[in-house]
Fold these 2 entries.
Entry 1:
Amino acid sequence: MDHIVDTRRGRNDQTLMPGGQAFITETRSAAREAGITLFDVTDPDQGIVHVISPELGIVLPGCTLIAPDSHTCTQGAFGALAWGIGSSEAEHALATGALRLSRPKTLRVTFTGVLPAGVTAKDLILKLIARHGAGGGKGHVVEFAGETVTALDMEARMTLCNMATEFSAMTGIVAPDEKTFAWLEGRRYAPTGELRVQALKHWQSLRTDDGAQFDAEILIDANSIEPMVSWGTSPEHSIGISGTVPSGAPERALTYIGLESGQRLAGTPIDAAFIGSCTNSRLSDLRRAAALLKGRRVAPGVKALCVPGSMHVKRAAEAEGLDVIFEQAGFEWRESGCSMCFYAGGESFPPGSRVISSTNRNFEGRQGPNIRTHIASPEVVAASAIAGCIADPRELRP
Amino acid sequence: MTPFTVLTSVAAPLLRDNVDTDAIIPSREMKSTGKTGLAAGLFAPWRYLSPGSRDPDPAFVLNQPRYAGARILLGGDNFGCGSSREHAVWALAEYGIRAIIAPSFAPIFAGNCIRNGVLPVVLDQGSIAAIAAVNEPVRIDLAQQQVEAGSQRWTFAIGAEAKAMLLEGLDGIELTLKHRERIAAFQRADRLARPWIYFSTQP
C-alpha cells in the first residue's frame, strides 16, 4: 500500500497509478478477512513500512523480520535479522510460520574515523557500493561495525542498512547498543515493564564475539569520504561530489544519463529535486535538509518535493515548523508514502527530467520514462535544489 | 511447479552487468495482482522502441530472429538486482525462459527463480562468453549440473535444496509443513524464552 497510495493532499483510495485503487481495496479486505492489522491509507500511523515498523517498535533486536520488499534490510539497524523476500516466500512464511534458508555467509564492513561535516550515512553506503560494486555483497549478511557506525544515531543506521540490498547483500545489521534500547523505549509494540527488563538482558548479549571469523572483511576509512552522488544507472556508479565521471565508464550508462567521462558532476543542471523514500525520509533527514533550505529558495524552474516517510514523521516535522521552511523554500510538502522513489504510471516527473533524489535506485526508468536520477543525501538534494544544479552542501554552510 | 531436468535451447546473450528487476519488468507493466499477463511487459524498456509502446526494437536481443523462442538467457554480474518483485521471474517464465546463466545473481531474485521452476546457473564470465560465441543450442542437465554447448562442457554448483526443488518441482510449503511439529515446538519454547517477541503478550 505504501508503494501504491498517492501522496497528494486530500488523497483517498483513488490513485494516479493505474490499478492502484483495486490493489488498495483488495489488500484491505484480505487483511480484514485474515485478521491482520493494516495501517491503512487514513491511519495516523500510515507510512513506508520500513519507517513505521521501527516507529511502532515492531522490529526488535534479535528478531527475524521479513517482508516482500527488498529494503526490509533497513531494519537490520536494530540488530534484527531483517531481509526482503519474494511473494512466494511471503506466502510460505504466512502458511508455515517459517522459511527455508541455508545459513548465509558473513561479511563485516568496518568504518573507522569520524564523518566530516556534511557527510552522512548515505555517503558511507554509496562509498562502499562504489568501491566494491553493486554485486559486492554476494548474498552475505553484512555487519556494519566500527567507531563511525557506533557514532551514528538510529535513523542514520537505518539509512546505512537500507542500501545493503543495493550491495546485493542478503541484509545489513548493526549490533544493538544503548542508543537502540533507548530509541525503542515506549514504542507501541516494544516491551515494557518486566518484559523490557528481560528483553534488555537478552539484547545486551547480541553482539559479535571478540575474535569471531567472518567469511570476508572490508575496511573503510570514513575520514576522507565526501558527499557522494551517482553519475550513472547503478548505485555503484557513484563518486565524491568534487569528482568527475570516470574514464572507461560504460557507454550505455553515459548515453542514458547524458554525461561524458571526465565531466564534473557538480554544476550539472537539474530539473527536479526529491526528498523522500525509506532511505532518507525520517525526521533527522528532513531537519538536515531544512537547515540548508531555511531562508533560501529553490532555483527557478526546479520542481521540488518532500515526502515524509510516515504520517508520524510528517506531524513531528510540522510541530517543529519544518513544513513551513520547505514550503517557503519552494518545496511541495506531501503526505507520506514511497511516492517518486519509483514509477508505476502514477506520480512522476516529466519524461527525461534530471532529478537529484534522496532515494536508493538510479536505474534506467526507475523514476519514470527516460528520467535521469542522481542519488545522494538529503543535504546534497537540498543544496542542489537551491543551486539549480548538482551542488556541494558544504559550500552552503554559513 | 514444472520440474526442471534437461533443457536444450538457443541461449540469448544479454551480457550487461546489474540487470535490475525494474528493467526485467517495470512497475507500470505489473497491472494485475496476479502472476499472469506479464510476458508482454518483459524487458519492456529495452524490448520496445518507446515507453508504453509494443513496437519491437530490432536491436534488442530477444527481438532478433536467431534468438526467437530462446528458453535460456545469458546474463552479466549481479543479475536480477533491485526490487524483490517476483513479477520479474513470473514474466521471464511466462515468456518461456527456464534458465539464466550469469556470473552472479542478486539473492532475492535467485530465490524467486528457484520457487518458480527457473534455474539460475552460476558460471564465470569467460565461460559465458564462450557459450555466447558457440552458435549452437545449449544443453543444461540439472541432475549432472552441466552445461554443454558445441563440444564444450561446463560444470556448475547449486545448493542441494534448490536442486531437489527444481528437479522434482517440489512445493516449499508442502516440504516445510512436514516439520509442523518441530516448528510449533520451537515457537512454544521461544515464547517462553523471549516472550517480548510475541505481540499476543503485549498489554
Note: The first helix of chain A runs from residue 20 to 34.
Entry 2:
Amino acid sequence: MPHRIEIISKFKDERTEIRLKKIHSLGNLEVKNIFIVDVYTIDKNFSFENLETFASLLSNPVTQTFFIDKPFFPNEFSWAIEIGFLSGVTDNVGNTAKEILIDKLSANEYNNNLSVYTSTLTFIEEKISLEKVQKIADNFSNHLINSIRIKNKSSYFQTNGMGIFIPKVELKPNSNADEVNLNVSDDELLKIGKFGILENQNQENEFRRGSLALELDYLKTIQNYFASQKRNPKDVEIESLAQTWSEHCKHTIFAAQIDEIENGIFKTYIKKATDDIRKLKGENDICISIFHDNAGGIIFDENFVVTDKVETHNTPSALDPFGGSVTGILGVNRDTIGFGKGAKPILNRYGFCFGFPNDESQLFRDKEKNYPLLFPKKILEGVVEGVNVGGNCSGIPTPQGFLFFDNRYKGKPLVFVGTIGLIPKTLNHESKSISLIEKKAQVGDYIVTIGGKVGQDGIHGATFSSETLSETSPSTAVQIGDAITQKKMSDAIIKDARNLNLYNSITDNGAGGLSCSVAEMARECGGAFVELEKVPTKYPNLPPWKIWISESQERMTLSVPKEKWNQFSELMKKHEVEATIIGEFTNSEKCVVSFYGKEVMNIDLEFLHNGLPKKNLKTESQKISKIKSFADLYFENSSFSHQEKLLHLLSHPNICSTQFVSEQYDHTVQGTSIISPLIGKGKVNGNTSVIRPILSSWKGVSVSQSLFPHLTEINPYLTSGITIDKSIGNLISIGTPLNHIALLDNFCWCDALNPKRLWQLKETALGCYDFAVQYQTPFISGKDSMFNDFRGYDEFGNEINISVLPTLLISSIGVITDIRKCVTMDFKFEDDEIFLVGKSFLETKNSTPSFKAIQEAIELEILSSSYSIQIGGIAVGLAKISIAGSLGIEVNLDEKILFDDFETQFIVSVEKKHSKKFEEICNKHNSNFKKIGKVVPEKKFTIKNFENKTLIESNLLELENYYKKPFESF
Amino acid sequence: MKVFILSGYGFNCEEETKFAFEVAGATCDIVHINDWIKNKKRIFDYQMLAIPGGFSYGDDTGSGNAMANKIRNHLWEEILEFVNQDKLVIGICNGFQVLVNLGLLPSIENNYGKRTVALLHNNKGRYLNTWINIKIENDKCVFTKNISQMFLPIAHGEGNFFAEENILQQLNSNEQIVLRYCLENGFLANQIFPFNPNGAIEDVAGICSPNGKIFGLMPHPERAIFFTQRPDWNFLKEKFKREKKEIPKLNDGIEIFRNAVNYFK
C-alpha cells in the first residue's frame, strides 16, 4: 500500500507571498490567502513507525509539522490544487527523498522497488470560480510535465483529501526491434520521414512514432543502402540514421553546396577563416583544438588551455522553458567536461531572445486550439530560472549574458547557453606525460556509460530541433535536468578519474543519445559493439530503439581499458555515479548493436557518418539598404525630444537593467570574479566579464557577446561585421589584447531552405570570414540552428507563421595578461575628461586603430573608465556610465550622433594629467578621438551641442529610475 | 594546522575554501564524504573541519537537510567526539545549513544534535548573489576575533535565519549571534532589503556554539580574500592611486581564516 506524507509550515511560509503576488499578476484575481503543503507519496508499504521516521527526515521540526496517511484540513479554504509530475518526468526532490530513506534504512535492496513522488498542494482561501482556479493551476504548472488535480472544499472533505496519485511509468512488454519495409512508394517514404515509423500497423491503435526529419533524398539513400545489404532495416537502424543525419548533428545546410560555394559555407568561410588566421599568426597562433571536439580550445598559459562552447536550446525551451534551459546549460557543461579528457567548467554565459514580456496575444500550435503557445513572459521566467538552477547548483559562475526582445521571437525563443572550461595540457601519470587534449578510444576498450538512467524523455530531440515548431512537435522531447546527478558525475571525472588516467576517451550524451555518442567515438578506433539490454533504464520494457536514441540527461560515454575497469568502477561508486559497461570498441568498421542477443543494428561506419547525400542549394539575392541605429529604427518618424528619446531608450527592455537576472545567477562562486556583471555603485549591467581562473596566477579570461539581429535583413554582410567588431570591442574595452581573442559563431536562422534566407545566411557567413580575418580573431567553435520558425494559429484560428530574426550571435573570449590592469565602465572621479574614441564603423569597416589605442592606454594604466558603445548609442552609453559611477557629466555633442550606435567605438574617461598622453597614444595608432567634456560631482547629466544649446538635461536619479524600472517587479 | 574540507553530493566551494585556508597558512585535504565514511576516524588527524558552500543534494527537502541526514546516519559519533575536543568547525553557506540541521549549531547549553533554528527561503523568494556588510557583534567566536565589520558576498536561496522568541533570547544572552547584516556605516540593517538580503530575523548572518568554536555563516569569506575579488576594486584602485596609497593584495575575508590558523599557534 502506498503512503502519503503531507508536510506543513507551522509559521509563515515565505513561498506563499511570492505565489500570491504571482496570482495577483494574473489580473482579476483577488485571492486573500493561500496555504502550501509539500507532499511525498511513497510507493511501498511501510509501518507507521517507519513512516514517522521518514516524515521527520523529510521535514524540519523547527518550522514544520507533518501528517501521515491522513489529510491536512486547513480552517479556511475553498479550493485545493495539487500539482505533481506526469509519469516519466524527472522528479529530483522525489529521487533525493528516496536516497534519504534508503540511506536511513541501510537498505540498498530497495533501490529498484521503492519510488518516492513529490507534489505540491495549494489551498486557496477565496470563493472563486473553477475557471479561475484552473487559471491559477495553469500558471503554476506546465501541462507537458505536470499533473493537476483540483477539488473544491466539499469534495475534499467527502473524499477525505486529495487521495493518492502515483505517476508510475508502465510500458507493455515489447522488447523487439521491428523490421521496417522501405520497399514502398515515395509517398509512403515521405510519410515515414515526416511523421515517423508506423507502430501497430493495421491494428486499431496504429500510430506513427514521430518525425524523423528525413527528406526524400535521404530516405532513398537509406533504401538503396539496405537494398545493397539485401535486407530490410530494423527500426533501430532507421532511427539511428535519422539522429546522426539530422541537421542538428550533421549541419547539412552548412555543409551543402550553396551556389558556387562547392565545399559549403562552413568549410569555405568559418573554418577557412580560422585556417588562414592560424597561418597568418604563425608561432603566435593561439588555437589548440578547433572544431572537432565538443568545444574549442585556446592557449591560457604554458600549462593550461581554456575551452569555450555556446549551444542553443530553442525548441525545448519553447515547450517547457524551465526544463529546456536547465537541460541546455547542463548540456553545454557536459560539452566542457567532454572536451579532451575533461575540462573543468569555470564560467557559464547565457543569451535569451524573447517576444516582448507584455505581449499577451494567444497563439496555438494547432487549429483546434488545444495546444497554446506560452506567453513570452512565462517563457522568460522559466528560462531565466532554468539557468539559475542549472548554473548555481553546479557551482559554476554565470556572470555573462544578455536579454534581447523582439516580437519575431514570439513563436520560438532563442536560448543561448555557453560554458568556458579550463584543462591542463598534460597529465603527469606514472612518470609519463599524457596529453589531456587528445583522446582516442582503443580497440578492446569497454564502452561505458555513466550518470543518469535512460527513459522515454528526450526522444527525437535532435530531429525535432531540426524542424519548424508545430502541431507535430513531440512533447517527449521535453525533459527536466538534474543538476546534482551531473555535479556528482563531473566531480568524479574532472577531480578524480581524469587525473588517474582511467579512460582513453570521453564524450557527452547529448542530441541523439547513445546513438550519436557511441557512433562518434567508434570513429576514433573503427567500430563499436553495443548490448542495449545492459543500458540502465528508469523503468522496464523500453523498446530498443528508444534506449538507443533517448536523450535522457546527465550521461556521458567513455572508453575504458579493460584493465582499468575495476578501479574506474570503484571510483564511480564512491561518487555515487552509476557506471555500466554496455559494449566494446572494435575495429570492424561497423556499428553493431544487439538486444538480448539479437542483432538490431549493423551499419557500416562509413555509411553512417558519410553516407548522407550532400545538398545542393541555390540562393536568391536580396536588396540591401542603409544600416540604421537602434534608435532610428525604434523612433521612426516620432517627434520625441532628445531627452524623451534617452529616457525611452534607457527603459527599452533591450537596453535597461537586467539586474534581476544577474543577481540570481551566482557569479562569485569559485572565487574567480574580477569584473562581475553589475558595474559600479549604480550596478549597471556591463557587457564583458572577467575571471581569474587560477587564483595563484594574475592571468584572466574575459568574455563577451554581441548580436544585431534587427539589422540582418537590412544588410547581412555588414551586420556580420558589426557583430564581430562589437564582440571584440567589448573585450578590448576592459583590457584584453587583440592578439589573444577568439570567436564563436552561433547562427540561429529561420526557414533556411528558402533561397532568400539562404542568401542572407551566405552573406553573413562571408562577413564572418572577412571580419574575423581582418582582426585575426579565429573561430574556435560554433553551432547552427536553421529552422527557428513557428507555424500555427492565432486566437481566431487563422494560420500564422512567425520566423525569428535571422540571428548571428558572436561570442568572444580572450586571455588577459594581468587582471590588475583591467578597467571597468563606471566613471570614477569628478573632473576626469571624457573622450570618444574611434571612427564610424559604417565608414571605415575597421576599428583596429581604436582597438590598439585603447589597448595601449589600458596597458599604461591611464584610463579611469572605459566603455564600448552598445545599442542606444553615445547618449545611452554616457547615461549608463554615469549611473554606474554615480557621477554626472557636462559634455558637448553633435546632436546628429547622440543615439548613433556606430559613429564611434569607445567612451573613456581620463584623469586630466593623463589626457595629453592619451591623445598621443591615439595619434600614434591613427585612432580618431574627441574630447567631449568632463565628469562632474553633482548628479547632473547635461549634454549640449557645440553652440551650447542644451540637448539633454537630466539627473542621475531620473536616469537610474528609467534604466531600472522595466524589470523591477520581476 | 590541518583542515579537513568535506566534499561530494553537490558541495561546490571546497576548492576556493582550501585556497583561502592555504593563503592563511593552513594545510588542507578535500575529502569526499564517502571516503570519510569508509575511514571514520581519519577526521581526528585534523584540527579543523570545514563544511563548504554549495548545493548538497540540490537543496532537495530543504537546504542542508539531506546531507545532515547522511552525516547523522554514518558519522554522528565521530563528529560528537570531534567537537568535544579542542577543535574548530566552520560551515559556510550550505555548510552552515548542514550544521543547523545537524543541531551542531547553535547547540545551546552544549546540547548537540537538537535542531532549534532554521534557515528558510529568502523572503524575496529567490536565490541572490550580492555583496553585503556585516557587523561582528562580540568576541565570543574564535573565527571573528578582532574584526569589527566586513564586506562579503552572499549567494544563497535559503538564508533567512529563523528561531522562536525563547531561542533567540538565549542566543542573544549567550552572545552566540556573531554576525548581523548592517549598513556601510555599521548601523544594523533592520530587516531592510537589500542590506538584510533574505529577511533574517534580527539581521542574523552567522552564529557560533557556546564555546565559540563551531561557527556557521551565510556569507562567503573565501570569495573575498583578495582585493580584486571586491566588486568595487576598480574604483578603489583608482582612488588609492590618486591618494598615492599602496594598492592592497588581500581583503577582509582572509581574517576569518587567519583567526582559525592563529588559534592553534
Note: Residues 1 and 261 of chain B are 6 Å apart (CA to CA).
